[in-house]
Amino acid sequence: MRVASGENTHLRPALGEKSARSMVYSRTLLHGLTLQAGRKLPYDHVDPKAAREIFIRSALVDHDYHSNAPFYVANQKLLEEVGMIQHKSVSLFAQQLKTAIPVSAQRLEKCLKTV
Fold first, then answer.
1. Residue 23: CB atoms within 10 Å
2. Does 113 score more than 70 pLDDT?
3. What does the pLDDT read at residue 110?
4. For the chain: N or C, fewer Cβ within 10 A?
5. Contacts of 99 (CB under 8 A, 6+ apart)
6. CA-CA distance, 14 to 20, in Å (whole number)?
């Protein structure tokens, strides 16, 4: 007796919160009938390149991943330093313009929200 294999569909790839790994929902159909739905699979088994891109974008760029790994701690410190440098450069620019009130990125963002 031959067993027919089902058709797999993969939906909504995203970074898994607990696993910090790119995951995808899988649905298995057999002759149009759903055999299995909503099963989470590691996305790198389906599309390794896309899984890597999701991890980089979500975990590292959007900061959805937190770690005590040395590279991560060093990157966080660099980001803080860049933020301070940006704040100083905005303040120096405001001083050159001779504005009456000190200007900062936070004050600028606050003003833009009210407009």
1. 22
2. yes
3. 77
4. N
5. none
6. 10
